[in-house]
Design goal:
heterodimer; A: about 90 residues; alpha+beta; 2 domains; 2 helices; 2 strands; about 30% helix; B: mainly alpha
């Protein structure tokens, strides 16, 4: 491999490996899940942890983290100011 | 092209579930995307998890801020959005570090394999995280020399023919090595315990 900054080498490597995963067949994916003792066809399968559940409801944006939803439950994209450590949490 | 429906998360559990409900992706696509998200979360600080990367990418497509070009498969498109979010993170980190002259930003860097432009000046944090993750990936294939060779070739943007010629591999050996690489990556990406 060509000598590059580690970050660049990693980027190139990740893109190359990403292509391999995009090309992975459904059968390969299901076989890998089976090897791990997972059955994606079952409700609540561990394979979907972090996808369908087990995910902390938050999203990133360029300014940090934003809440997923507003008070009505609709996606907002509102940017929030991060609370400085010196400032007590609301409600205290 | 019609505008996307507003994303109402009261009815949808997560953006991924909403994408599933809208038939944007299949269950297997989500598993494929999970493995890709885990890959792209490598080298990011622990505060940014693979799940954040995946759900944010899907949410950006659902809320219309990213449009899938015609002819681009959804998994490849979402993988690109994840890459873009990752690049945004590092651009922000670099801006915050305040060490990069604007001139370098304008000069830009070569894009790796059609991806985001290379960050011309990775921060020390990024370089350290990258070294750690390169070591982790190396360990995944430590006992498989052909896999290391194929990965090095792919990362250098070599064609399959070039890789076979360079390492004296037959096409069959090359194909079976790629299958082994995918198997390792899929297992790593689907397993329950965080890397």
């Amino acid at each position: 491999m060509k000598t590059l900054q580690p970050a660049w080498t990693l980027e190139r490597l990740l893109v190359a490996l990403e292509r391999e995963l995009i090309e992975a067949t459904d059968e390969e994916i299901l076989a890998a899940a089976k090897e791990l003792g997972m059955d994606p066809s079952m409700k609540g399968s561990a394979a979907f942890f972090g996808i369908k559940y087990g995910y902390l409801a938050r999203m990133m944006n360029l300014e940090g983290l934003r809440p997923w939803v507003d008070s009505t439950g609709t996606l907002t994209g509102t940017r929030t100011r991060r609370r400085p450590k010196s400032e007590p949490p609301k409600g205290l | 092209m019609s505008l996307p429906k507003p994303l109402d998360l009261r009815s949808a559990g997560t953006p991924a579930e909403e994408a599933l409900a809208r038939a944007l992706v299949t269950h297997t696509d989500l598993l494929r995307l999970k493995t890709i998200a885990r890959l792209h979360a490598r080298g990011l600080p622990p505060s940014v998890g693979w799940s954040d990367l995946l759900q944010e990418a899907i949410a950006r497509v659902l809320d219309g801020s990213r449009r899938q070009p015609e002819g681009v498969p959804v998994v490849a498109f979402l993988a690109g959005v994840m890459r873009s979010i990752r690049a945004e993170h590092w651009r922000r980190a670099r801006r915050e570090s305040g060490k990069l002259p604007e001139m370098l930003v304008e000069l830009g860097g070569a894009a790796p394999l059609g991806g985001e432009p290379l960050d011309p000046t990775p921060t020390p944090e990024r370089s350290i995280l990258a070294l750690q993750q390169l070591a982790v990936i190396d360990r995944l294939f430590a006992d498989d020399l052909p896999a290391q060779q194929v990965i090095a070739g792919l990362a250098d943007e070599r064609s399959p023919e070039e890789i076979c010629m360079l390492y004296g591999m037959s096409k069959t050996e090359y194909d079976s090595t790629r299958r082994r690489i995918r198997r390792v990556l899929l297992r790593e990406g689907l397993r329950s315990i965080q890397p």
